[in-house]
Design a protein that fits this description.
about 650 residues, alpha/beta, Rossmann fold, 5-stranded parallel sheet, 17 strands, about 40% helix
Length: about 650
Amino acid sequence: MSLLDQINSPSDLRRFNDRELQVLADEIRSFMIGAVSKVGGHLAPNLGVVELAIALHSVLESPADKIIWDVGHQCYAHKIITGRRQGFHTIRQQGGLSGFPSAAESVHDIVGTGHSSTSISYGAGLMEATRLAGRDEEEQGAGGEEGRRRPCVACVIGDGALTGGIAYEALNQAGHLRTPLMVILNDNEMSIKSNVGAISQYLNRLRLDPTLYKLREDVAHGIDRIPGIRGGMRSLKEGMKAFLVPGMLFEELGFAYVGIVDGHDIKALRKSIRAAMEIERPVLIHIKTTKGKGYEPAEARPDTFHGIAPFHISTGKTIEQPGPITYTEAFGRGLARMAADDARIVAVTAAMSNGTGLNYFERQFPERFYDVGIAEGHAVTFAAGLALGGLKPVVAIYSTFLQRAFDQLVQDIGLQELPVVFAIDRAGLVGDDGPTHHGCFDLAYLRPVPGMNIMAPMDEAELQHMLFTALHLEAPAAIRYPRGPGGGVAMPSVFRRLPVGKAELLDRGEGALLLGLGTGVGICRRASRMLVERHGLRPTVVNARFLKPLDKQLIRELAADHELVVTVEEGAINGGFGSAVAELFAEDAVPVRRFALPDRFIPHGSRSRLLKEAGLSPEAVADYVAGRLVERKIVTAARRKASGEE
């Protein structure tokens, strides 16, 4: 029996010594590679933290002790150790395990994390709650077992996530409170791509100058040998360490700094974790790991294997079949073409150049490309500054991550009326990554911002025209589009400006008016074909193009000649496109049937199945329209008969 077969809970790890646990790490890697090769997932980041997960669970006592995985795409070994090995082949599959921590899935998953830089804030709050609960017990005389160890909270945060500002806000408060929190800085020099910024350079200096650590230890041991050292001399010791060692940035924030520890040496990791548990103030353990560790293709191409589709283990090549150009590619290629003709165009992203398609722009115009790290709020205000300087900034961020910058969207863009273009990728349902990554809310949170122009293309060609249009507006503009391939339409050789706030009438019919926005247009068109083929009904189909400004004139004119008004959008039902149309007709008492994503968080699974289960499908639209029109015809006929007209 393999060691892995003997692991059903974290407590099982305590039967093994350091050497056996190192063997277990190899077994977990092989198991993980085999499973992810079939279903896809976040492989490289997870391969890098296998020993860390083993070390944490072999020393701590989860779930009494809490382990918080920042971002969450490094939790696979944690899931395998905490009793989910048998179901691991279902990871990121509908009805199976989540690809991120999920509190609904296991008591060992403390919180469902999917975004970055939040673990220290969660951890500091948990430790304060524990402290206050303990004080209440003492005041009530509960006491508990004498000598009982206080619970430990360990926050695992990557050096990429440490570029996010909220991490420093949490470090600042935890240091101020002297919260006995354990922070493990997993330093692999990567987020998805190589890290950027001064923090990355700082950590790099720590990694590359081991003599500083020898000097630090020599100074510390030398002072410790001075007879009667205490009080002022202890302060001298800490002051000399701070002067000599760059790692004292964390010490200055109130953290005891431990590092750098080999993140693939289980014995060293366990020793550091045990030592940290004895310190009565916050501790930061700085570990060095290799992203993709143990699988050569992932080590060689960690950005490719950060999140990967099913692949051949022997070669590392994906099994995906080629298809139409994706919306992301259409955006990236189009922006690069436009930038070739306009030197004022600059691009900004928050650590997602490949994911947003800005890699094309970055290769052609590196001096006009800015990766600010995982700092979405800063990205938006930085772009505001670029616009103030006369440039044309395009900010490319996933829908779910742009939520973090809502205040900046309002205060620094909207209020200042600055012409910044937001390219909002992964709008709508993203599929396997689940509720933390679905882009459901952008239409609703963008719509209230005064002066914001909001567009959504029906296909990848229209996306490029919208981008061209947005770059010629002297006002804020947002274009939201889905993940994945487009419809295979021909890409434009010449870009054209679309009339702002004007919808496009695609097919003039009767009875029902189908208004689609973005991917909703495709649903409307397919529903229309079904109605023609199955019921002989031919509705009117409109590509709204703009949520704001809304083409009120066309919609009102068409609605006057139709019995039903139906809206379709791949966004939250509250506050989006359907709400805008319903508000338009509120005074006229015209009923509007809205098809949108329901008012709940949607789980992970295939995008097509999730849309169908959410009632956002051509069949659902067609069935509703057919049912209502047939019902109205019956009611109208009955009324005529009752009045003697027939």
